[in-house]
Amino acid sequence: MKKAKSGLVLAAAMFAMLPFGFTWAGVCQAPTAHSELELDGCTSGDTLILREVHFDTDSAKIKEISFDFLDQVSKELKENPTIKVAVQGHTDSIGAADYNMNLSQNRAESVRYYLVSAGVNPQQLVAQGFGLTEPLADNATSQGRAENRRVELKMVGTLVLSEPQPTNVYISTFHAVPMELVIPAGSQVTWTNYDEISHDISFDGVQGSRIWTKGWKGDTYSLQFDNPGTYSYRCNVHKDVNGRIVVKPAVEEYVTTESPIYPGQTTSSYEGKQTTQRVGS
């Protein structure tokens, strides 16, 4: 968890509408147009009502007036990358139950999509629709129905992030193994050359480094990847030496590739051994 902010208070009227799962202790606070989201005091099961999220009538399209507010939410979630939340949609009782269930699910999906587009790790978010099944107020009044039409953010657990792992790509018989490597952000990748000729590696057209051979021992080139994205590389001379590094905020498993010691024959005798390990195992 990040360090708590100071000087942020929320009007007591907002809390009157919160469900029983809300934590009063700490600084677990729902955001408004004038105060930021606080997750530091939240625990699993706590629910925050996002009253500033608005949609077009009978639609899952988020109104533009909600964007600044959702940017606050995305900022806080990115600063708390281990918190896993459910974006939950709720409706009033006007209309058929199945229609409201679909509408609430689509609205939750729209909010999730917005947050992911703003840079939140998709693994932190799940979208759930509850339709008219969990009212907070009496649907017989217009005020009650307005309270029931809402989006909530529920704390559902802790996301286990991947620890960056040193990992390897080896080049042999003019191929890179593996050709695609998926790693968590912050990982360092090392290329080892076992060919009898050097390779000039470039990333997305930007020159990286020449990887020389050293008497069959294999020269190396290392690069750290801090930002999520896909990074393609290739040898400027040998087109079959190519691949891509896929960097994610977190991964469920990581693959380590190890090359055997040169057996004294030719590079064709190299076989890369890959070990797959689940995160947390």
From TrEMBL:
CDD domains: OmpA_C-like
Compartments, as annotated in UniProt: Cell outer membrane
Entry keyword set: Cell outer membrane, Copper, Membrane, Metal-binding, Signal
InterPro entries tied to this protein: Bact_OuterMem_StrucFunc (IPR050330), BlueCu_1 (IPR000923), Cupredoxin (IPR008972), OMP_bac (IPR006664), OmpA-like (IPR006665), OmpA-like_sf (IPR036737)
Domain of life: Bacteria
Signal peptide: 1-25
Coiled coil: none
OmpA-like domain span: 42-159
Gene3D superfamilies, A to Z: Cupredoxins - blue copper proteins (2.60.40.420), OmpA-like domain (3.30.1330.60)
Region (Disordered): 261-281
Tagged with keyword Membrane: yes
Alphabetical list of PROSITE patterns matching this protein: OMPA_2
Chief localization: membrane
Protein name per the record: OmpA-like domain-containing protein
Species of origin: Zhongshania marina
